[in-house]
Design goal:
Elements lengths: L19 H8 L3 H55 L2 E2 L2 E2 L6 E2 L12 E3 L5 E6 L4 E2 L9 E5 L9 E5 L4 E12 L2 E6 L12 E18 L5 E8 L5 E6 L1 E12 L2 E5 L10 E12 L2 E10 L4
Parallel strand pairs: 3-9
Antiparallel strand pairs: 1-2, 4-5, 5-11, 6-11, 7-10, 8-9, 8-11, 9-10, 11-12, 12-13, 14-15, 14-16, 16-17
Length: 297
Amino acid sequence: MVRKDVCGNLLRRPAAVPNYFKQVSSYGLTLVEVLVSMTIGILLIFVLLEMYLISQRSVKLQTAMIDIQDNAYAATAILTSEIQKAGTIGCGQLTEDFPVMSYLSYTINPKNKMIGNASNEITVRYADYPNAVLNQSMTDNITLETSQHVHFSSGDVLIISNCQRAELFTVQQVKIKGAHQELIALSPLHHKYEKYSEISRFVVNTYYVAPTNRRNQDGTIIYALFVKDIKQRKSELVENINKMKITYSFMQAEKLEEVSADKISDWSKVVGVGIDLEVRADSLKKNKYMYSVSGIR
C-alpha cells in the first residue's frame, strides 16, 4: 500500500541509520579480555627482565672468577719466584763455609736468607740478576770499574763475589767512562777483587698483605699484596689479596714437618714454603694454595 501525505505526495520510507554501537559490540574487547591481555604482557615483561638479570649476574660472576684467577696467578708467581731466589749470591753458594761479609746492618747468611714472622710476613735476601762484572782487577779497596750491563746509582747496596768470597758494600759515587762505569765505595772493601768478579744489587724484600686506601662497592676496604724493599719503600703489587697464611716445611726425624713461623728456630733448615691466599673480587672470595721449594738449601 502506497502512502500519501495530505497534499497527495508519496511518502518515502526513511533511510536506515547505521548501527555503530552494534559494530563496536561485535568487534571490541570486553573488560575481562583487556585485563587478561595486560596480565600476560606484564608476565612476559617480568620473565624477560628476570632473564636479563640472570644473564647480568652470570657475566658478573664470570668476570669476578677471571679477576680472582688473574690476581691469584700474579701473586703466586711473584712469591714463588722470590722464594726460589732466596739465598742466591751469584757464582758462589751460600753456606756456613762461604759466608758473606756484612756491611752495617746489611747481612745475608743461611739463617736469614728467608725468614717469616707471626704476622704472616716473609722476607727474602739475595743477589739480583742480571749482574755486572769487574772489567779489571781492583787496584785499591774503594774503586771498582765495571761493565754497564746493569746501571748502578749512588746509595745502592751491592754484593760482590769472586766465587770464593763475597761482601756487601754501598756505592758512594758512580762515574760513567765510555762503555764502563766506575763505582766508588762508601767504605773500603775488605778485599781487592779480581777481574770478572760479579757485582749485583743486594735485594731485601718483605712481602705482606695490608689495607689500601680504596674501598669496594659494598664499602669494605680493599686489601692487597705489598712489598717493602731494602730502603723501606713500600709498593702495592696485587690488589684484592685479602689474607695470606704462610707455613714452612723442614725435615724432622726424616719426616717433612709444616709449621708456622713462630715454631721455626733455625731458618737454615727450611726447605719449602706453603702459602694460602684468600683472593676477592666483588663479593666473591676464593682460596689459592701454593707451595714453593727454597732454591738454595
